[in-house]
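# nightly structure sweep
# worker-07 picked up a monomer target from the shared queue
# config: single-sequence mode, recycle default, output format = structure tokens
# input follows
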Amino acid sequence: MSGSPEELLRGALEKIVFFECRVDQLHAELEAARSGAARAHEAAASSRRREAELESALAQARAAESQASAERAELLDRVRLLEAERERFLTGMVERARVNGAPANAESETGEQADLAGFIAELRAEIVRLHAWKAAAEAAGYRGDDAARTVAREPTPLRSLSGQSEAVSALAARFEQAGRIGVPETA
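# output follows
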């Protein structure tokens, strides 16, 4: 060892001061790291809470969608049943009018029966016209399952769809295959 005890003491004091400064510096870095970790922990907890909230909202939305889909299916079934009942009713009325208007009963036919037969014939013609309009509207992009959302819209006039005869023919063929188009046979 070289040097005097004073130099050794000064060197030892310098090292002590250096290590105390380094300890203070490391302590400050440790506190900064701890606060950063605490913030990251809080952010992770917040993210987990948000994830749970979003999963809950998603489950609620799926349940609402499922319920709406079931209600829509039920309403579509009701519409189909009502349309079928209307067709049966009108067919029955037309048949009764024809029976009453047959030549064998020509003597007993009154003016009221003739008026009823004319009215029923007009109704049947209107239904046929509406079926054609519906086919043209669906060919133009109107979908029957969107009926609840498109009630407020004005229907597209048939005359503006005249250039889409191929689409109308294709749609009519699809409806016919699905059994959705048909005029009951009359005797």
